[in-house]
Fold:
Amino acid sequence: MTTHILIGTAGHIDHGKTRLVGRLTGINTDRLPEEQARGISIDLGFAHFEADGIRFGVVDVPGHERFIKNMVAGATGVNLVMLVVAADDSVMPQTREHLEIMQLLGISAGLVVITKTDLVEPEFVDLVRADIESLLSGTFLDGCPILPVSSATGDGLDDLQATLVRLAREVVFPETSELFRMPIDRVFSVAGHGTVVTGSVLSGSVKPEDTLELLPAGREVRVRGVQHHGSQAVDAVARQRTAINLAGVKIEEVERGMELAAVGYLQPSQRMLIELQNLASSPLSLRDRQQFHLHLGTREVLSRINLKGVTVAPGERTFAELRTQEPITAIHGQRYILRRLSPSITVAGGRILDPSLPPMKRIKEIVAVGTKWSAPSDANRLGALVSQQEIISDSPLEAARRVGIQPSSYRHLLEELSASGQLVRLRSGSQNAEQSARPLDVARGITGELPVLRASQLIHKDRLAGLSVSVMKSVREVLAKHQPRRALSRELFVASCQEIAYPMLLEAAFNHLLVTGELVRVGTQIGPADAQVKLTKSQQTARTRILEEIAAAGLMPPTTRELAAAVGQGLEQIAPLLHVSCEDGLLIKLSDELYYSADAIELAKQLCCTALTTLGQATMSQLRDAWGVSRKYSIPLCEYLDQIGFTVRVGDLRKFNQIA
Structure:
């Protein structure tokens, strides 16, 4: 299998980068007339060569400080850096800045080439080498090969090529997404073919007739053809310099900084969570609302940082919020650069942690949040994401973008979170809420090889806990408006919480609160376990009168209307007093109009027991006579005893309930 390696040049202006690439590859990367006339690189240049079975793509970047933005764009996707230092000039400002940029971009391997060795004495080359070794101390290039080369005579070129091959075989490639992504660094038109864009493929693969998304516009486009270094190809994969011919796209509709990606993978955003490193060489202490040029992929855009009041001194690292002037696209773990507006200089950089912070969601504890999103464990980062979501998506695309997991591992990670108790199954009110934390149900897909998980039926335990707090607050507010009550119907509480979450989540929250005991059942109703009834003196007096009236009447208590008249209040005033008395076990409700004392019900049960013991079975008329009441009372009494299982009805007869 052919290995593809991208080499990026770096170094000060006029240190011989372009000429070195030309001798190494046979290609002059200065394609613009102005570049050829002035003898300096202004824009990115591209070349390629093959050695020992390895295909090298070379991105030649400009060295002038005015074109650093082009240099950063060219460094996107680079696997090896070739830092170029002229023997007659030694280390210069852009040498240092390019090295810092490469370090911030996370490049981990490379070498240094001392060029123009034919212009100085060998002793001077040794002095330059010493300067370079001092510069590289403590950086990712510390201890790397330092090779003297003359592009004029060709001396050292064979050794350079052999070293590049050796380093290429030692490169440890970072894991990339399975989804296609390519930042665009060049756009042009070819007669008879239309618009062509080029870039370094960061992840995934693409082939002719594929449909991609052009971002940040969000437009779906068709791939007409794919090329590598001027030759047609059947596909393009990660680490390849690639040209893609787009069908039906005008050249003025595309520009450097846009991206091509798998449909649905990337989402434009203007707010991100970042890991921020202020360079030790930075002249600035970083503060809230400072504005910088953000370099991300091949894009440059104005941005501001939000440090939540913290000041970050040179050399320090922290977490921050980044807001951009225009929508951009990024993924978790992507590297970026921040440069001061004027005078322009690289001051900071780091990694994107969450590329799609919700527009209105405030981050209170940014260090705690940043720590979660920078966790090395895929499961922990996914847990941080789903803890924010009301509905966990069945699609892995958002998780792939925001926490950097492979789409193919999404379902397995959800299972892992479920097995550890971090994910809870949403269940309807009729189901047993105590079973809500068992592992996911997995069903084999009809057409796919991977199991299909109903992720939308899950919620993170932290999200459920937060939702439960909101529900309890609403429950207490509603109960306070209906005093004196300890409990109300579940339906009333759910209706009051409709703005908090969608119905299935509310059911899960109520079930959770019942399981934890924060809510308790009071008959057919529910209420807070610690709910206290507050009665006014007038209500206390009325309730005492009500209890006395009902107790004195025995098995023939007054109706609610009669009770209201007796205490001199309306039905709506005594209704909550009757309800609270039932909650306290002082009264038992047999119908909307009849309430009995506990002693009266116990007497009714004793008299019924005597009648059934004597008769074996009894009609309602016989029980009515045993109780000494009218039909008005015997019907609700019989129905209540049936309901509680004391008796069982067989036709027109009542018997002892043998099961009870």
In short: Residues 32-43, 63-67, 428-453 have pLDDT under 50 and may be disordered.
